[in-house]
């Protein structure tokens, strides 16, 4: 005797054509990035600034408004006209500010990247906020890792005299609080490597002078916006300064590389 066949499930009844279920359900769009975070707008702009300043001490109200004007974030407006942000908006702002700070990416490119993230063609994991000091130096654990000359020498694993010499030569300049800024470590590491080739701190003064001239050039470019009082103008000044500064860096690097290439046998 052949085994009994399992009972056949009844076919579902056809759905009338005039019912919504009859239409094919399109694949849902992935939705704006970041996903999985609340989009309920309950945060005031002051709340967002307080959250962002843990990692970006210099961020301002005008900067956030400028990023809004550029279409990179879209806060909700209350009937009274006040902006309110969601946790997802906050993470989107962190992404934009990190791209500017860490990679000097132009806003146009950041916008294209966000569009790809929104479309789901790219992915980007969420990263926790990096806690920094008021000088922009990352904190280490519960204690603030301030870059005094001694602390910076330990962080860069170099003799403290190298840092002292760079300060005395004017290559490194302490902040008004007496600490060295977030970029000082990169300067110290490069200077320590050059010292192995007999290049001392006093030989690096032309680099400081050249950097100052480039900074003056950037300041001239952004002067029209810095002279305006509108939040949008101040935000644009900050963004243009970062972009032009990065272009100056690339130009300097290309010129040095080209000149060094001619020295090769």
UniProtKB/TrEMBL annotation:
Keyword Glycosyltransferase: no
InterPro entries linked: DNA-bd_dom_put_sf, MerR-type_HTH_dom, MerR_fam
Region (Disordered): 1-38
HTH merR-type domain location: 64-116
Keywords from the UniProt entry: DNA-binding
Pfam families to which the protein is assigned, alphabetical: MerR_1
Superkingdom assignment: Bacteria
GO molecular function: DNA binding; DNA-binding transcription factor activity
DNA-binding in keyword set: yes
Gene3D superfamilies per record: 1.10.1660.10
PANTHER family to which the protein is assigned, alphabetical: HTH MERR-TYPE DOMAIN-CONTAINING PROTEIN (PTHR30204:SF89), REDOX-CYCLING DRUG-SENSING TRANSCRIPTIONAL ACTIVATOR SOXR (PTHR30204)
Name used for this protein in its record: DNA-binding transcriptional MerR regulator
Species in which this protein is naturally found: Cellulomonas hominis
């Amino acid at each position: 005797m052949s085994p009994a066949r399992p009972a056949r499930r009844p076919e579902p009844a056809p759905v009338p054509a005039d019912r919504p279920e009859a239409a094919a359900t399109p694949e849902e769009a992935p939705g704006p990035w970041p996903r999985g975070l609340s989009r309920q707008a309950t945060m005031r702009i002051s709340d967002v600034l307080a959250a962002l300043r843990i990692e970006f001490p210099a961020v301002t109200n005008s900067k956030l408004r400028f990023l809004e004007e550029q279409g990179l974030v879209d806060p909700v407006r209350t009937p009274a006209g006040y902006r309110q942000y969601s946790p997802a908006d906050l993470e989107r702002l962190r992404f934009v500010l990190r791209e500017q700070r860490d990679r000097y990416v132009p806003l146009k490119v950041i916008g294209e990247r966000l569009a790809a993230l929104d479309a789901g063609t790219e992915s980007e994991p969420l990263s926790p906020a990096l806690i920094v000091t008021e000088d922009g130096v990352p904190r280490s654990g519960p204690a603030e890792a301030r870059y005094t000359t001694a602390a910076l020498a330990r962080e860069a694993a170099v003799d403290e005299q190298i840092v002292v010499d760079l300060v005395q030569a004017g290559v490194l300049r302490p902040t008004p609080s007496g600490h060295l800024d977030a970029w000082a470590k990169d300067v110290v590491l490069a200077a320590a490597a050059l010292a192995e080739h007999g290049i001392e701190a006093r030989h690096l003064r032309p680099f400081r002078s050249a950097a100052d001239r480039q900074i003056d050039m950037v300041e001239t470019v952004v002067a029209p916006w810095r002279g305006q009082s509108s939040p949008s103008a101040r935000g644009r000044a900050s963004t243009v300064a970062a972009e032009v500064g990065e272009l100056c860096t690339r130009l300097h690097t290309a010129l040095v590389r080209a000149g060094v290439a001619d020295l090769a046998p």
